[in-house]
Amino acid sequence: MGHVVVTELPPDAVRTINLILAGGPFPHPEDGSTYDNGDLLLPRADAGYYRGYTVLVQGAPDDERQRIVRGRDGDLYYTDDGGKTFEAILGAPGP
Which CATH number do you get for residue 80? Predict the structure, then answer.
């Protein structure tokens, strides 16, 4: 898995991270629900460890291709292809 520095993320993804750190409010009712990591693309963890959040892209159709996944310990991951690949986010503020 690769990584991306938070300052290199699209502004919409950074806004989503800020919402996560603030505890919401979130634009989608599914935001904050368990992300099961069924394809094991993220590091192995106990069930319920990961939560998924949709990146609301301003001016784009709501296709949910961009997401932020957060681990219970504050680790963050970004996908821009609907969860086919992930990058660990470096340099984001802590939990």
Answer: 3.10.450.30
Is-contact 6 75, C-beta < 8 A?
A: no
Sheet with 2-5: list strands edge to edge.
2-5, 87-90, 76-79, 67-71, 50-54, 33-35
Strand partners, 35: 50
Whole-angstrom distance, CA of residue 53 vs CA of residue 16? 8
Flag whether 95 is in a domain: no
> Is residue 82 within 8 Å of 65, Cβ to Cβ?
yes
Give 30-48 pLDDT, tens digit per residue: 999 999 998 999 999 999 9
DSSP 8-class letter at 15: H
pTM: 0.90
Domain-embedded: residue 73 = yes
